[in-house]
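Figure caption, in words: inputs first, then the predicted bound structure.
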Amino acid sequence: MDKIVIEGGRRLEGKVRINGAKNAALPIMAACLLLHGPSRIKGIPDIVDIRTQIRILENLGGEIRYLEDGSLEIIFRDGENKEKVTAPYDLVRKMRASVCVLGPLLSKRGNAKVSYPGGCVIGQRPIDLHLKGLSALGSSIETKEGYVIASANKLRGTRISLKGQYGTTVLGTCNVMTAAVLAEGTTIIDDAACEPEVQDLAHFLNKAGAKISGIGSNALTIEGVKELHGIDYEIIPDRIEAGTFMIAGAITRGEITLENVREDHLAATIEKLREIGVEITTNGNYTTVKSNNDYQPANITTMPYPGLPTDMQAQFMALLCTVSGKSVITEGIFPDRFIHSAELRRMGADIQVDVPYATINGTPFLSGAHVMVSDLRAGAGLVLAGLVAKGTTHIHRIYHLDRGYEQLEKRLSQLGANITRVQE
Ligand code: EPZ
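Bound structure (EPZ present):
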């Protein structure tokens, strides 16, 4: 197993290119099950979650390869592999997003057998809203031996609300949308997620021949069509990767320019960073983060889009640990998503957690320590803390980071960080 070792204290400077969005790529790849013929998708990051999704789709009969220009070609052919409907436990357990093959499988092959994704360190993560939506479209669903087994002779349009206790559901909206595009009649999804990644999936499907309107709002209308065809498509830039690099610039009091950024997708992150005192300027698809030493503490609440993303919470926590004064974070999506706070405390941070709140009293400095990554974004928060900590930080269990950030240590090192990957 590898670990990351960081000698903190370097000011980061330079330019970094942001990759395509992992959380747009995963459901779009699954949606290729619905399309007849080849699709070529540009901007797919080279990360472990994408490799897992490729294996899942190959198991389902997909022919997948990288082309010379770096795009990923995915081919499913109508009428072939109808009997292949299983997403097995050993792949689904590696990545919850594999659950987004459920809608396409049900729609295209009439059956789906997908391992039930369990809870994880960021919280319970049920899929009841996914199943409620798919049932409303006319599928029968049972849970057997750890699998969701769903079948439908014909899916029929209907009106569904995806409102849950913590708002709507991102992947649930993807599953219901992909099941509805080929259903008979019109489906209205109320309380749909409108995250940029959900919008990207809808744009992808429309380009392939679907009829989805209301994209970007909380009510989607989907008129069923008879068939969808393969297309060329470019994934949106990853707003969470961009936000993570912005905080890398801010926390090291450096100056970084990010290339391939959609500023509109980052509005809440940029607004909060400016409130803290970080200077951010944008020019086309370039964004520059410039820092000073005069940061203010802040109160942060994570919310569904266009609110501040929960996937940026750990990174903001790391930054606020270095800002003198009291900051409060309210986690509005996954109330238990604070495991990283215990690791940050090992580095000298002063954080009190009383779910769903974390109160942070900024300390003059963090110090290097051995810390353990519990999930992808927690890992990003720990790397950011390590960049500014005095001394050496050893970050263990970095396979979580490899799931979602392409060559993170290499790109940070190109910006001037003293960071290396070491075999333990
Ligand atoms: C997506 O997960 C993302 N994953 C997560 O990013 C992200 O944190 C999350 O959306 C919220 O933005 C991918 O896109 C692959 P949800 P998802 O269903 O769709 C509750 C990362 O690090 N809920 O929107 O699984 C749920 O418990 C990952 O890249 C139900 O109650 O999240 C949570 O409180 C981590 N019933 C809330 O809704 C359901 O059926 C939002 O979860 C589904 C969800």
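The longest strand covers residues 35-42.
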